[in-house]
Structure formats: structure tokens, C-alpha cells
Amino acid sequence: MMTDVAKDYVVFDPNKLVDSSHSLLTPGIITQALLKIPGISAGEFKVDAVPSVTFEPDTNGLPPGPQDVFSVWYPEEAQAAQFRQAIHASIDRKEEKFLSVGVNPLMMMADFGRPDGADASLFGTLDGARRLIGADQLPAYLNGQTVNVVVVDSGIDKNALPRGQFGGGWHPNPGGADLPVPPPPGLTTGEDALHGMMIANNVLAMAPAATIFDVPLIPPPKIYDAPSFLIMAHAVYRTILRHIRQFRERGLFPGPWVFVNAWAIYDRRSEGANPGAYTENLGYPPHFPPPHPFIRVIEQVAADKFDTIFCAGNCGEVCPDGRCGPNDFGPGRGIWGANAHRDVLTVGGVRVDANWLGYSSEGPGPTPNLYAQKPDVCAPTQFVGASGRYPPNTGTSSSAGIAAGVVAALRSQWDQGTVPPLVLKLMLNMTAWQPLNPGWNGWFGNGILNVLAAYQILLANWPKSSLPASRALAATGPASPSASTAVTNLSRVFTQQRPTVLQARSRQSNWPAPRCLCRQCRTPCHDRETSARSAAPG
After folding, report:
1. Which of 125, 145, 127, 144 lies closest to 136, judged by CA?
2. Which residues make beta-bridge pairs with 152?
3. What single string gives the DSSP state of each residue in 260-276?
4. pLDDT by residue (tens digit) across 484-520?
5. H/E element holding 9?
6. Is residue 423 classed as helix, strand or coil in its secondary structure?
7. What is the pLDDT of residue 272?
8. Prediction pTM value
9. Residue 472: helix, strand or coil by DSSP?
10. 273-277, 318-322, 354-358, 444-448: which is most confident
11. Chain centre distance of CA 24
């Protein structure tokens, strides 16, 4: 029986690798095609997954997404090297069958645990979370109407959502007998739905009229040691982008799209013999230079003008999650891969009293192929009140859900064609209030979200809504500026206004040492000066 000594992520051209007569590719079909490649022998590898992704409920006749990625296991690292060499040789022969091959790292949810006993004193309320970021002062029409939010997580329970807020979702099927198939979108229940429902409820707490779409991709929180596979995320995103284009051709779901990802790479040892290929976006040169194939997909999401939110992760120095690698926690060692990409909004965690949480992953991000100033901002976590019958909010996952809801609320008035995602992200960074010294730092990023200030600057720069007249602001003023003009204007406003905001908010804060919840022992962690390893969970 094969062991998982190495597992690769292979991107291929299905039209050139396999017979076009196959409507659905399987591990067996891919295996037969691979055995025709010189240098690849039977028994030295096993194709274990050829993902396919479908939209459900499929009332619109959408075809499954493209099958252009698979994962393969090897019994030993020597066989892995031989397989990759054969793929490289195919590239050198210009056969154009393969677009990338490399180790498939593990990604896991950024949850942290639930309160017990005295730990409950560390929790705030949803009202406190809204006050912290100024969401309680937003006008009621910033409610997320017509905005589509895709929750890429462990699955949600559609019956626990408000009526009319579920839009369907994408169902990933690994396509291999050895891997579990998640429940269909909206049909995850019980403990398995805890994490996904936390994200969905936080989105709706900020944008109650948003439409939620489910992608049950990541293993549920009770399976802490079970990896999900980057190839599945690749397949999911490729399919979603294709289907959104088809939706728009048919006049379906015409509003803005927002993606929220509450998962991260915790242990870089999962990259095997190619450290940094994904986590630092080094790729696999010389045959497959950066960007890494999944990073390339995320860049396409940005190019299509969709907002993308990632959590920072839970590998902060003070109280890292027990899953963090031995060298993958603390400053500059916790935010990796797509979570550190310039095009995404990366969100760390604070309590509702604005105290930074010691498990929130710290910047800077890895350079030069990713962005140093990560996280971008922080948002509240560790509060109760948004989760209905599900447990309280914890971890930077919760923060990412709040940030996605903030983006959805703003998008209900200004679409992505008028205010591109890069401009909105810049504005959220500029208007964030910084509890420490002005400027970016590895704990808070650019500061804590200040959605009211962001709204006011949007209103000043784009007084006329880009959405239907029935929902437009009763505002007058000049036509909306171009994105480049807006960036210049935002920079000027930021320079003029931010010091006053900082002074006003900083005077309100009394900064105790960072604290967190240990996932297993459930006790408050030590202060910042305590050794990070002695403060690790459990």
C-alpha cells in the first residue's frame, strides 16, 4: 500500500493529455495517459484525485468546471523526483501537456477554539464588535443587497440562514475513491457546520441582505489533522470564475462578488523538497517559474474585479495554534501564499476592546514575490451574538468574516466597476485606525477597520451610486472619478485626516498584554514577553 511520502499538484491541458472523448476524467483515465509519457512507469505513482466542481442547485444548466488539475502520490521521494523529471522532459519537448507540477501543501481552517469557564471573560458581544469598527453608524441601505458572497470553507447549513439569503454553491468532488466527498452546498449540519456558519453569520451581521454561496472545501473543525488540498481550491476557483461569466451572460446574480477564505498554511514542512514554492510564491523554476499556479488563479480573481478576503492565520508569537510548524509562528513566519498576496485583503484579529490577540499571525509577509505589509488590517473576533445557535466567534476566521461583511455592505452601494477592489482595499487600509504608532506594523497591519471613515470617503469621491436608481443615494455632485484619480484623492484625504483620527481613538485605549485562548487547555496565554513555545496551545 502506498504511503503519502509526497503528494504533487499537477496542472495540465486536458485537451492534449487525454482523449477528448472522455466527458468526465477519473484517476484511471489520467493514469493511462501518464503511462504514455516517457520516463513514467506503473507502480511508481498513484493518481488519487481529479477534482470536478458543479454548481448546485443546477437549475441553470451550468456545465461542470474544467478538469485541469490532479494530485498524485508516490511511495518514496525518489519516485517523486523521477516523475517530475519526466514531466519536465515533456515540457522541454514542447508537448504542452503540463503547465505545472510541484508539491501540494496542506491548508487548514483558521479556527481557534471555543470558550470554557473563566475563558468566557475574554469574549465581547456583536454590538461591541460593530461599535469598534464604526459599523453601528452606517446608514441602513448599506445592507449587502444584490451582493454575492462566496464562503470557501467547511460548508454551511442553509436552514440556519435567514430565508432568502442562500444562493446555492459549488460542490467540489475530489474524483478519487480514497478521498471524502463533502456534502452538497448548504447541507452541512451539526458540528461540521460550526466554522462555515461562523463566517456566514458574521458576513450577514455586517451585510444582512447579502446572498451567501457555499463552497464546502475545507475539512470540518473537529478534524484538526486532516488536510484539504490546494488542487481543490484551484479547481473551485477556476470553475466559479467561469460560471460567474455565464451567470452574467444570462442576467443571473448580476451584483458584485466577494470571496472569503478563512484558511491558511500552518506548517511549511508540507511543501517537502520545494520549500517556498507556494508559501513564498517561488514556483518551480526553471520549468515552472512563479507565480505558483494557485497564486495565478487568485490573480485572475483580482483581474476579474472581485474582492477577495483571507484570514491572517493563527500562528502569532504569543499563543500559536498547535498546528503551526516549529518554525512557522511569530513575526514574519505566519502569513504565507495567497494570504500574503497584494491583491487580497488579509485580516488579523483583535478583541472588541481593540486588544490584539496573541494568536493572530504577524507580518511581514514573505518577499520579494509576495507582499511584506501583511496583515492589511485587523477586525474583531472572540465575541458572541452573531452565530445564532452556533458557538461564539474565535480566531482570525471570524475576523475575515466580519471584513467580508464590511466589504459586502459597501459594495451594496458602489460596485466593482466603479470602485475597483484594489481601490477599496487601499481605502480600507488608509482609513483603519492604528492603536500603536502611525504606519504599518506586524500586529495590527495598518490598523483596525474603520468602516464609517471608509464610507465617508467613498461618499466624498463617488457621491452617485453605481447601482440601480431605486437604491441610489439621494446625492448630488460631480461625476465619479477614475480609479487613478480616486487613489490620488484618497492619498490626500488620508494624509490630512488620519492623524486626527489616530489621536482621538488612541486616547480611548488602555493596552493590556495580548491574550488569547489556548485551543486545548482553554486557559489564558501568557503575556508577550513569555516564550512563544511555552505559550503554545495545549
Report:
1. 127
2. 215, 261
3. EE-EE---GGGGTTSTT
4. 555 555 555 444 444 333 333 333 334 444 444 443 3
5. strand 6-12
6. helix
7. 76
8. 0.86
9. coil
10. 444-448
11. 28
